[in-house]
Amino acid sequence: MPVDPAKLAKLRKQSARRVGGSRVKSRRSQKSEEGDDTKLQNALKKLDAQVMTGIEEANFFKQDGTVLHFNKVGVQAAPMYNTYTFNGFAQKKSITELVPGILPQLGAENLRVLQQIAEQYQQRKNAEKQEEKDEDIPDLVEGETFNKEEEVD
What we know:
The chain is of the alpha+beta class. The chain has helices at residues 5-18, 33-46, 95-102, 108-136, and strands at residues 50-52, 58-61, 66-70, 74-78, 83-87, 90-94. The protein has a domain at 42-135: Ubiquitin Ligase Nedd4, Chain: W, CATH 2.20.70. The mean pLDDT is 78.
Protein backbone atom coordinates (compact mmCIF):
# COMPACT_ATOMS: atom_id res chain seq x y z
CA MET A 1 0.00 0.00 0.00
CA PRO A 2 1.59 3.26 -1.13
CA VAL A 3 1.64 6.18 1.34
CA ASP A 4 1.00 9.69 0.09
CA PRO A 5 3.60 12.07 1.71
CA ALA A 6 1.22 15.04 1.58
CA LYS A 7 -1.52 13.12 3.35
CA LEU A 8 1.00 11.84 5.94
CA ALA A 9 2.18 15.41 6.69
CA LYS A 10 -1.44 16.54 7.08
CA LEU A 11 -2.13 13.74 9.59
CA ARG A 12 1.00 14.64 11.58
CA LYS A 13 -0.11 18.27 11.88
CA GLN A 14 -3.56 17.27 13.08
CA SER A 15 -2.25 14.77 15.62
CA ALA A 16 0.20 17.30 17.03
CA ARG A 17 -2.68 19.59 17.94
CA ARG A 18 -4.69 16.91 19.65
CA VAL A 19 -1.99 15.25 21.76
CA GLY A 20 -1.47 16.52 25.26
CA GLY A 21 -4.02 19.26 25.47
CA SER A 22 -3.81 21.87 28.20
CA ARG A 23 -1.83 21.03 31.30
CA VAL A 24 -3.68 20.83 34.58
CA LYS A 25 -1.54 21.81 37.53
CA SER A 26 -1.89 19.55 40.51
CA ARG A 27 -2.65 21.10 43.83
CA ARG A 28 -0.13 20.28 46.48
CA SER A 29 -1.22 20.09 50.03
CA GLN A 30 1.22 21.57 52.51
CA LYS A 31 2.62 19.07 54.94
CA SER A 32 2.08 20.01 58.51
CA GLU A 33 3.87 18.94 61.64
CA GLU A 34 0.64 17.37 62.82
CA GLY A 35 0.94 14.87 59.98
CA ASP A 36 4.41 13.91 61.14
CA ASP A 37 3.16 13.66 64.70
CA THR A 38 0.33 11.32 63.72
CA LYS A 39 2.79 9.13 61.80
CA LEU A 40 4.98 8.96 64.90
CA GLN A 41 2.02 8.13 67.11
CA ASN A 42 0.93 5.36 64.74
CA ALA A 43 4.44 3.90 64.75
CA LEU A 44 4.49 3.97 68.55
CA LYS A 45 1.12 2.20 68.65
CA LYS A 46 2.59 -0.58 66.51
CA LEU A 47 5.43 -0.91 69.03
CA ASP A 48 2.91 -0.97 71.89
CA ALA A 49 4.46 2.08 73.58
CA GLN A 50 3.00 3.01 76.96
CA VAL A 51 2.71 6.53 78.37
CA MET A 52 4.86 6.91 81.48
CA THR A 53 3.39 9.15 84.15
CA GLY A 54 5.10 10.86 87.07
CA ILE A 55 8.04 12.26 85.08
CA GLU A 56 8.22 16.00 85.62
CA GLU A 57 11.45 16.90 83.85
CA ALA A 58 14.21 15.34 81.77
CA ASN A 59 17.81 16.42 81.18
CA PHE A 60 20.08 15.28 78.36
CA PHE A 61 23.76 16.03 78.95
CA LYS A 62 25.80 16.77 75.83
CA GLN A 63 29.56 16.44 75.29
CA ASP A 64 30.12 20.19 74.92
CA GLY A 65 28.90 20.90 78.44
CA THR A 66 25.39 22.01 77.57
CA VAL A 67 22.18 20.34 78.70
CA LEU A 68 18.88 19.85 76.88
CA HIS A 69 16.33 20.51 79.61
CA PHE A 70 12.68 19.45 79.23
CA ASN A 71 10.62 21.11 81.98
CA LYS A 72 7.22 19.56 81.22
CA VAL A 73 7.87 16.38 79.32
CA GLY A 74 5.70 13.63 77.91
CA VAL A 75 7.40 10.22 77.87
CA GLN A 76 6.36 7.11 76.00
CA ALA A 77 8.28 3.86 76.33
CA ALA A 78 8.45 0.59 74.44
CA PRO A 79 11.08 -1.29 76.51
CA MET A 80 10.85 -4.46 74.42
CA TYR A 81 12.18 -2.46 71.46
CA ASN A 82 14.48 -0.21 73.51
CA THR A 83 12.52 2.82 72.29
CA TYR A 84 11.73 5.88 74.38
CA THR A 85 10.25 9.14 73.16
CA PHE A 86 10.38 12.49 74.90
CA ASN A 87 8.15 15.26 73.64
CA GLY A 88 7.93 18.80 74.82
CA PHE A 89 9.79 22.07 74.55
CA ALA A 90 13.56 21.64 75.01
CA GLN A 91 15.72 24.46 76.37
CA LYS A 92 19.50 24.62 75.97
CA LYS A 93 21.14 25.40 79.29
CA SER A 94 24.59 25.15 80.82
CA ILE A 95 25.35 22.61 83.51
CA THR A 96 25.96 25.33 86.07
CA GLU A 97 22.35 26.56 85.76
CA LEU A 98 20.91 23.14 86.55
CA VAL A 99 23.30 21.86 89.23
CA PRO A 100 21.38 23.20 92.27
CA GLY A 101 18.17 21.51 91.15
CA ILE A 102 19.83 18.25 90.15
CA LEU A 103 22.03 17.59 93.19
CA PRO A 104 19.30 16.18 95.47
CA GLN A 105 18.29 13.70 92.75
CA LEU A 106 21.79 12.29 92.14
CA GLY A 107 23.38 9.37 93.94
CA ALA A 108 27.02 9.08 95.06
CA GLU A 109 28.21 7.54 91.79
CA ASN A 110 26.51 10.19 89.67
CA LEU A 111 28.01 12.95 91.83
CA ARG A 112 31.49 11.63 91.00
CA VAL A 113 30.66 11.57 87.29
CA LEU A 114 29.29 15.12 87.50
CA GLN A 115 32.44 16.22 89.29
CA GLN A 116 34.59 14.69 86.54
CA ILE A 117 32.55 16.46 83.88
CA ALA A 118 32.99 19.77 85.69
CA GLU A 119 36.76 19.24 85.91
CA GLN A 120 37.00 18.42 82.20
CA TYR A 121 34.93 21.49 81.39
CA GLN A 122 37.25 23.72 83.46
CA GLN A 123 40.33 22.17 81.83
CA ARG A 124 38.91 22.90 78.37
CA LYS A 125 38.18 26.50 79.35
CA ASN A 126 41.70 26.97 80.73
CA ALA A 127 43.24 25.40 77.63
CA GLU A 128 41.24 27.74 75.37
CA LYS A 129 42.36 30.79 77.38
CA GLN A 130 45.98 29.62 77.22
CA GLU A 131 45.76 29.18 73.45
CA GLU A 132 44.39 32.71 73.09
CA LYS A 133 47.31 34.08 75.10
CA ASP A 134 49.81 32.09 73.04
CA GLU A 135 48.37 33.40 69.79
CA ASP A 136 48.90 37.02 70.84
CA ILE A 137 52.64 36.71 71.49
CA PRO A 138 54.79 35.26 68.69
CA ASP A 139 57.79 33.07 69.52
CA LEU A 140 61.19 34.71 69.20
CA VAL A 141 63.65 32.99 66.92
CA GLU A 142 67.34 33.61 67.39
CA GLY A 143 68.83 35.71 64.60
CA GLU A 144 65.51 37.05 63.34
CA THR A 145 64.12 40.50 63.85
CA PHE A 146 60.64 41.83 63.32
CA ASN A 147 61.83 44.94 61.52
CA LYS A 148 61.66 44.68 57.76
CA GLU A 149 64.99 45.21 56.17
CA GLU A 150 64.92 47.14 52.94
CA GLU A 151 66.43 45.24 50.09
CA VAL A 152 68.82 47.27 47.98
CA ASP A 153 68.84 46.40 44.29
